[in-house]
Known about the structure:
about 20% strand, Beta-lactamase, globular, single chain, 10 helices, alpha+beta
Amino acid sequence: xxxxxxxxIGLADDSDLRNIFSKTKLNGTIVISxxxxxxxxxxxxxxxxxxxxxxxxxxIPNTLISLEERVIKDEFEIIKWDGxxxxxxxxxxxxxxxxxxxxxxxxCYQKFAKEIENNKYxxxxxxxxxxxxxxxxxxxxxxxxxxxxISAIEQINFLKKLYKNELPFxxxxxxxxxxxxxxxxxxNYTIRAKTGWSGKIGWYIGYVEVKNKVWFFALNADIKKxxxxxxKQIVMESLLVKNII
Length: 245
């Protein structure tokens, strides 16, 4: 369901964004849109409506679902480490929702998913109109290697519903999710965002509140491990070149 942003695939790509992308030689797209959609900038219009696996950007709806289903109380509850040593050292200790989303702790959300179960995920995805509203054969990894897919445009529309408190969750859980998504807070602007990487597709999505305006962004690209830094770099350069921050 593509709502909120109407785009004309025949329009030329935004030249500023194209120049930023061209420096990285990545194949991808970025969408930047104001809250009411009166100003929208897109690089690679065709790809902006193409769906890809969300990877860890799914931790945003997954946080909301986990809170709503009471598998975690709030951002302060301790998520006990299972003792299994994993390749990413920051994961090898107790977590909270705040730390789990900031370091993209996979095992934390896999723990939640096993308690939530597939049928409930399908119900929530339909209520949210999230991407293709599918999961996959493994409830604990479907956002990494399952059937679920979402486009950059749909990510923008999802984030706008989050910002406007229009998602089907209790307000206190929406507030917690917004709080733990803050990655940068300055006197001039606040950025809430989440990265994602499936091993092939990289994401960086979120929104920036500046003065009396809110801007939403979603980037996805074909990314290898050695080019992961370009996700945030492209977004930040794009926000700068558009005089948003």
